[in-house]
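User:
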Amino acid sequence: MNTFAHGLVVFLVLASTCYAQTNAAASSSKEVFADLQRNMPSESELSELLAKADQNVSAFKVAVESAKPALDRVNVNLAKNYLDAASTAHTLISQTTKNGATAYRLVGVLITLDDLSLDAANASKFLLVADQSHSATEVATLGALSAAGTSCNDIAELIFHATMRLIAAEETALDKLLDVQDGQRTP
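Assistant: Predicted structure:
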């Protein structure tokens, strides 16, 4: 074989090796991204969680409105503040549903749901301390406040887990993208 033919064979072998490695890396990246998509919460899952969160916020609002006369005797601003917090939660949930779930938006929803849970616990405590003799209606109101707070806390926990999966997938995808841009190959 002459030198030219030998060089051409070596070139073709090297080129096919590089091509195979590039395809393997691309295939590996596609697999990584497919795994990320499988692990991320789906739009449907997040929509369902946000709808449930919105229902729980509505239940919180109803419980606060029911407790408003008793809360006003403790502090005239309590019920108003709690209802404002519920309105904020509705707005954040609505915006997240409309514009799409991002880690930033979901964390905002989580913080607001956590605040509502704490508000319900505080309202219950204020009502218990304010008056030691409670009518059946007041006891039912305390139960509704407690249930609303627990529901907000429970859905916040589910949204938290979905948010953490979303963040993990976004960070991994960003790392992979940066590796590709830097010319690095991941194993």
